[in-house]
Amino acid sequence: MEPLFLLTIPRYDIPEFGSLDEDYLCSEEQLSWYISDENMQAKPVHLLGQTSVHEENLEYEYTDLEDESWNFWLEKVDADCVYIFDQEVYRRCVKVRASNILIQYERPEEASAPSLELSYAYRRLGRVSGHSGILGIGNLSAMEYANDRSSLHNEVYSNLYFLEREFETKQEMDADIEHPMAVELRRFFEDILEQK
Questions:
Q1: Assessment of whether the complete model's pTM goes beyond 0.90
Q2: What is the mean pLDDT of residues 162-177?
Q3: Do 169 and 90 contact (CB within 8 A), yes or no?
């Protein structure tokens, strides 16, 4: 596997007195997307292991910084996982590829019973702003809406590894390499929905 570098990206929507910088792993080539900024630092990392995770038919609820909730359905999630030791902690970093994403929400109660409506996720993705290199969007169908899961054709993928999980001991990390836990998608949806 090619060498990876630890890249700290400041969140520029946070006041200067805030401290919500976020760490990613990237390839040497990807450093050029960010390294021209004096505030961004990168150092090479030593990989302790790698594995992958595959999941299907996931539902995930995300609450954004404005306390608005988004309920997602994902047909398929594949994640490449790498393990590092950083700041005295064992960490798992993941690069996610999610296929066929829907936003689910309940219509207001106009009738006696609410109904579930499905909205094409890319309508929301039009509001993404910030560092364009964090995510990629591919295999996008021409449809603006999809009321049927069988009609979906979309894909969102991470260009960078994000720090997703920490382990207290090397034994916990080794156990996860052997039998990896499901991916926590909080940072993935944060990269989609929040300003960076």
A1: no
A2: 95
A3: yes
